Amino acid sequence: MPNHLTPEELSKELGIDRQEVIRVCLEEGVPIYQGKIDKYLFQAQLEAIGALPQPH
After folding, report:
1. What tens digit of pLDDT does each residue of 25-54 get?
2. Strand partners, 32
3. Are 29 and 38 in contact (CB under 8 A)?
4. Exposed, middle or buried by CB within 10 Å (0-12, 13-18, 19+), for 24?
């Protein structure tokens, strides 16, 4: 499973709107490198700001 995804792929996988993915990246400092986002870094940032439930 790839670790670096486009905003479209990430939005489909996490069930979040593409624009929301980009907004979170810009506001929270998650890098978008060559049009791709590190999935695990993005998810960790969402958990840190309380947007996703933390795994048990």
Report:
1. 999 999 999 999 999 999 999 999 887 655
2. 37
3. no
4. buried
Tokens of 35: 């049009």
Q: How far apart are CA 45 and CA 51, in angstroms?
A: 9
Give the bridge partners for 36, in sequence order: 33
> Residue 40: what are its φ and ψ, rounded to 5°?
-70, -35
pLDDT tens, residue by residue, 3-33: 999 999 999 999 999 999 999 999 999 999 9
Q: Could you give the CA distance from residue 30 to residue 23 in angstroms, rounded to a whole number? A: 10
Structure tokens belonging to residue 23: 């907004």
Q: Which residue has the tokens 């929270």?
A: 28
